[in-house]
Amino acid sequence: MNEPKQDRSRATRLRLLAAAIDTLAEQGWTATTVGLVATRAGVSRGAAQHHFPTREELITAALDHMFDRRMAEVREQAGRTGPLSTEQVVERIVDCYTGTMFKAALQVWTAAAADPELRARILPLEERFGRTAHRVVVEQLGVDDADLRVRGLVQATLDLARGLGLADVLHDDSKRRRAVVAAWAAQLEAALR
Amino acid sequence: MNEPKQDRSRATRLRLLAAAIDTLAEQGWTATTVGLVATRAGVSRGAAQHHFPTREELITAALDHMFDRRMAEVREQAGRTGPLSTEQVVERIVDCYTGTMFKAALQVWTAAAADPELRARILPLEERFGRTAHRVVVEQLGVDDADLRVRGLVQATLDLARGLGLADVLHDDSKRRRAVVAAWAAQLEAALR
Fold first, then answer.
1. N or C terminus: fewer CB in 10 A for chain B?
2. Where does the record place the HTH tetR-type domain (chains A, B) (predicted)?
3. How high is the pLDDT of residue B79?
4. Domain range enclosing A85
């Protein structure tokens, strides 16, 4: 059976996005060219460049797509299991910041710090990611972030998650992280209820 | 008056270390070569290479030196002013993670994530920095971290500081950060006292 052309094009695009994230996380920003990502995805360089003329376009699209997918997963899990405990909410958001997507994003953020053009591309993404992650945590905790104290604690939880992500970049920090998440969640639970 | 040769050598070394941190923070890992740092420090490339044969040696020495200086400053400030409030302790440690040294370290950590040799050099630094920062916060809060709950809260404070540092890399995040620090400090104070 022939795959319709449009589906094939969409599948190629998704393979490129996934390969871009893996390449960034494992080989870093400088190594992540459209050519290398195409090879990793098993796509011709021409096809890759048809989808993404520049690596900035490829990488922005990859981060956008993976972030949305990750947030959708977190929301679906919660939908399936019903209300989560505070500790489960913290665990799940911390998981988002310790996976491959965070390691890929870190490469891009760090490159953008020394590159004003890239920074201008990345700032709107950063803002959108921050806003969305905040909303997801507020929903899952079932709290009202019109309360400034609550809002501060939700923000702090996301900053903590980001810091735990950074601590996991050079070695597996999962054992220490479990203790920190438990301590934080107990505190957050006491503060919110 | 002639500067004694040893003092001159020491001054050259310190200029190179400071220039390495600034170059890393502003221009990123790839741009930070011994040659560029020497130019920025106003030191001949030969003299720079006499002190630091490779950029890995230069950069490791720079991070080591700046970290120790920063921690010494935090300790001295506390010594001058007497016991600090919980919020002041959190503010000061967060300041350490939002300055030029953190931005320089971030470049090195991120490069090390994709470079096993560099990672092997950086891991002992990461461990030492983590241990020292933990001890400084414990001292300044005047708490006993043999208590596992206290230890978890101190660790969480350092992870939060790291996350706030990362949020400050692409834009000035100081306004949002003040609210987050205040929210967490209030929580930490309630949890510790």
1. N
2. 10-70
3. 78
4. 60-192
